[in-house]
Amino acid sequence: MRVFVGFAPPCTPISNMTVRSCTLTQPLRVLKKKLIESQPRQNWKHLLQDSSSAFRSTPKPHVKLGNKWMEYQGLRNWDGLLDPLDDNLREEILRYGDFIEAAYKSFDFEPSSPTYATCRFPKSTLLDRSGLPDTGYRITKHLRATSGIQLPRWMDKAPSWMSTQSSWIGYVAVCQNKEEIARLGRRDVVIAYRGTATCLEWLENLRATLAPLPNARNECCPMVESGFLSLYTSATQMCQSLRDMVREEIQRLLQSYGDEPLSLTITGHSLGAALATLTAYDIKTTFNPAPLVTVMSFGGPRVGNRSFRQHLEKQGTKVLRIVNSDDLITKVPGFVIDGDNDNDAANNPKVNSAASILPSWIQKRVEDTQWVYSEVGKELRLSSKDSPHLTSFNIATCHELKTYLHLVNGFVSSSCPFRATAKRVLSNHRSRQRELAGTRAEPNVCS
């Protein structure tokens, strides 16, 4: 049995943080207020412009996927492609990671800004201004998530950024370039989600008990983390729910492109990874027939119970979870006693042995507490310790999206975990971090 049931308070400085929180954004965002106050604003903006492409030691190859594109989207659950990691799949994972990075770079993190928690760029230029000028994709929809937490009246006197209920969470993009469509073997639709940013999103992360999905009627109903479900389904008089935004846009896209070979790839980091899994489930439940739906998640927390996982598998949703063994966020919330989970059996035999020795009545009592989660999908397990370019670790840097992209870029296989040519060319990035953070330099960036 694995037990992780605590959480850290939101906005805790990294230096004093205990290892208890559900999701984190990148540490630069967590420390943004102190960094901005200590240095000129233009330096902070310059830091945010670093592209995730700096993690790659060679230019991105343009390999034609052709008729094999379904395999890379998980049709056969990536059998034979993960260990060793297939180079074409590696580039696909990194490509979708770039879309998440664009979501981070486009978000206004500055609490004093009048446009706080909105997108900094219009749809027409977002990818270009976020460092992705030649993707062949066009953004068709901005997406917002809304917290369902009822705030006390005294919050009216608090700064507005503390009570921001709805915030920009990501976007929908459609591949429009004919050459890219031919290379990919189909028209691809991407939904990309950033991780936790606002105070109410942090509070939603703390609501970690399981709640039944809407319209679930059977006894063994699928249940998911309460806070994630709230962010996905809540709405205000002024703003639709994220669920309704996604449904409307997918409906429109299916009407426009449903006769073509089509894939839907939902990708996210941290909180965004959880929302990506919920979105995939909802799309496959709502639309029949639906295209091949694939989730590529980075550093995601657990999302739902065993029934939720079984429903995902039954509906044909493909989930590839990219997990850093040194990232504690992937081990929360709740705990796992799910002995029939293939991923746990393969990666951590102790989980099964712990579950098998528990009397059934104890397992039933534990499940009734609504804290029992189940891992979903296929897992690509990495480790910061395997990289020769990462010399020290902390909870924030192990969870950072750029760390994940670096590890994916370098991973070879379980017997040869890191290729020597996968270097992290970020010496300038490290220097700027040290200038901004003073003595609190990021030790996790390599020369």
UniProtKB/TrEMBL annotation:
<keyword id="KW-0442">Lipid degradation</keyword>
<dbReference type="GO" id="GO:0047714">
    <property type="term" value="F:galactolipase activity"/>
</dbReference>
<protein>
    <recommendedName>
        <fullName>Fungal lipase-type domain-containing protein</fullName>
    </recommendedName>
</protein>
<comment type="similarity">
    <text>Belongs to the AB hydrolase superfamily. Lipase family.</text>
</comment>
<dbReference type="InterPro" id="IPR029058">
    <property type="entry name" value="AB_hydrolase_fold"/>
</dbReference>
<keyword id="KW-0809">Transit peptide</keyword>
<dbReference type="GO" id="GO:0016042">
    <property type="term" value="P:lipid catabolic process"/>
</dbReference>
<keyword id="KW-0378">Hydrolase</keyword>
<dbReference type="GO" id="GO:0009507">
    <property type="term" value="C:chloroplast"/>
</dbReference>
<feature type="domain" description="Fungal lipase-type">
    <location>
        <begin position="190"/>
        <end position="335"/>
    </location>
</feature>
<keyword id="KW-0443">Lipid metabolism</keyword>
<keyword id="KW-0934">Plastid</keyword>
<dbReference type="GO" id="GO:0008970">
    <property type="term" value="F:phospholipase A1 activity"/>
</dbReference>
<dbReference type="Pfam" id="PF01764">
    <property type="entry name" value="Lipase_3"/>
</dbReference>
<keyword id="KW-0150">Chloroplast</keyword>
<dbReference type="InterPro" id="IPR002921">
    <property type="entry name" value="Fungal_lipase-type"/>
</dbReference>
